Task: structure prediction
Amino acid sequence: MDHKKIEEKWQNYWYSNNLFKAEDFSSKPKYYCLIEFPYPSGAGMHVGHVRAFSGLEVVSRKRRMEGYNVLFPIGFDAFGLPTENFAIKNNIHPRIVTDNNVSNFKKQLKKCGFSFDFDRAVDTTQESYYHWTQFIFLHLYNKGLAYRSHTYVNYCPTCKVVLSNEESQGGVCDRCGSDVIQKEKDVWFLRITKYAQDLLDGLKGLNASDRIKIEQENWIGRSEGAFIDFKLKQKDDKFTVFTTRPDTLFGAMFMVIAPEHPLIEKYASSITNIDEVNKYKEAATHKTEFERVQLQKDKTGVKLEGISAINPVNGRELPIYISDYVMMGYGTGAIMAVPAHDTRDYAFAKKFNIPMMEVIEGGDITKEAYTDIENGILVNSDFLNGLSVKEAKAKMIEFLVEKGLGDKAVNYKMKDWAFNRQRYWGEPIPIIYCPNCGTVPVPYEDLPVRLPNIKNFEPGENGESPLASLKEFYECTCPKCGAKARRETDTMPQWAGSSWYFLRYCDPNNDHAIADYEKMKYWLPVDWYNGGMEHVTRHLIYSRFWNEFLYDEGLVPVKEPYKKRTAQGLILGPDGEKMSKSKGNVIDPLDVVDEYGADVLRCYILFISDYEMATPWNSDAIKGCARFLDKVEALSSKVNVNDNEYTKDLKVLINNTIKEVSEDIESSKFNTGISKLMILTNAFTERESISLKDYETLLKLLNPYCPHMAEELWHNYHEETIQFAEYPKYDPASLLSDTVTVVVSVNGKLRDKMEVERDLADDVIKEKALSLDKIKPYTLNGVKKVIVIKNKLVNIVV
RNA sequence: GCGGGUAUGGCGGAACUGGUAGACGCGCAAGAUUUAGGAUCUUGUACUGAGAGGUGUGCAGGUUCAAGUCCUGUUACCCGCACCA
Result:
């Protein structure tokens, strides 16, 4: 069959008749399938996209056949650096680049026959969309969840842009690979940490693999412990540490504070070696994160001469050090060091010759720190002596609270979200700086703050946004007092637009709200969300944060936006390496569509392996899927159109296939689903003729995977489309065959098989097994025991 | 370092609560058809042995009538986090 002809024919039919339109408030049950919307790069669609979309494509088509009103939308996450860099390099405006890429991407998606509701397509770079991204920012600002703070940030000198920790992992820029440096900047933050606990709690109801949940949990990084106050010996003042091991307080031998800790400045005049301290501090601030990590094992630091702390439980005087192994950004930026029971403190103590004291029995602290919290008994610890670590923790916290020395505490690794970029191609942050009123939010009615159409969008020197040199943009009047004011010229990071797009799909053209509340109430939550493993932390957490916030604002109807989340595995190049242009191992899915057709591409990409596993592409193996579809087509000549019942001896196989193919789709085991369709097809092929009902069942089961072929063949017998034909149901009574193969083994080794009636009594089976010719020789010296597993096996122990 | 995952034929990969290891597909071999090539069809295909049989799921143990599956230890690779107190 000419795949090009039939694919074009049915794609035209589906799209021009709007078959995949999701209907608001339909009385059918709703089902919302969401795939992570793509970034429309110039390279177009990648095989990775095809895999990511094909999974829920199958689910969507199945749901329609099951009578659901399906929302399966598509959109484009189109702001961002690659487009801007391409635009700069080729001197084409990012608007034009984006529009071209989006329209090309849509064309490619349609060539694959994906059943998206294209009418709901969103584009984060359109005014009508970013209006509401800015609207959400204003809500965050007005609730104190967006704030400006002076801090050191990761900065890429090549891209001239501030990077988040995630974008600068390993000390190199995510985008260009240059070394990241630390730069002092005024930065916008979103207070995501306020939602840390909610984000953690919300995971409980999420249907996702442990891998996905644990990764989010680790990213949030909750730990329980205590805040403990330490008095300074020389001053009437104190400072607080966070520790997860309050039980070891008696073993605290020194204190360590981060180089940025305010205590240093506060008591600079009392610190006799302040020059040395400042020198260390200076060096530390200019180290990149990368260098800090590299130097992990080699602890450095300086002792503060002239001030020291007092251990609140035993009065011991504790020297205070500054060291860059303590981070200002975690806990309180200060720790109590217990060298006997913490590996980092141990290394530091060894290097600086600080004595240590064992407070938990069970290890050998002359060799290494003893950190086991499950075993070990407290010693040298006064009222904690003899207790387990767990008991000692509780007792110590009780003691601290009673004496007013500290309190139980919870701490999170997650940090507030740095939310601005000095770039052109992003949403302008809707803030105005007024000489009289200070920072003033743009009034809601003045939104959107339009991204001006400029010619020179190269970043300014010193990492300033290109908008900072555009008078028409930044000159404005204060909405409060009318004075001449200056507009914020930074834009939002790429994560902004993607943090709420799933809401917009419910009502993509609304121009007075992010989406109509009732429509969101109808569609939300997302029933099944699929995307990349790499977005399980950042994007998933950011978008859940925004949704939870908007829920608290009364703007969205559900607290948790996603019910179920899956993550497809990577498709590697034929060489087993990650696909990349430089390695020359990139497979273009459109080439495959051209040669074999969209059905074959979709089928192969799902058949290739377990959906969540990384797997190499194999260009030869595609043929197997092409042959499979040829066989399905060839069957049409065997169909007895007058027979509308299942062929009798195919009944069991067909019913099992319906059950298993359906279940495999629900558990995203698309590969085994296809293999079962192949088995059914092979069984049909072996026969002289099959009934119309047999064949139609196969076509219906095939439709979610290979809809063009299914549709084409279906129309040999029907006027109307197969897309809403009822999905086959199995008859539970027809799943079991009358006879079963029972395996007979001796001492666990397979010796023979026998075909017997189903559900024979154990005694009868045993009898039969023992009388088999192949078995007899083994039982000459007597039988110890016989184990019978009904309908499965007999094991004879001799 | 911590957390998660993976390891099964020549290859991609199947195997539900322990119960026929290798489904399905690729490749390969032989045969049929064909002027040839390609395509298609049939049969075979874990390893080993002439054979009955023996051996096999990274490695070493263990539990069990029975282990790819459970337990203990160990190795390699992949992903994530990373001086998180």
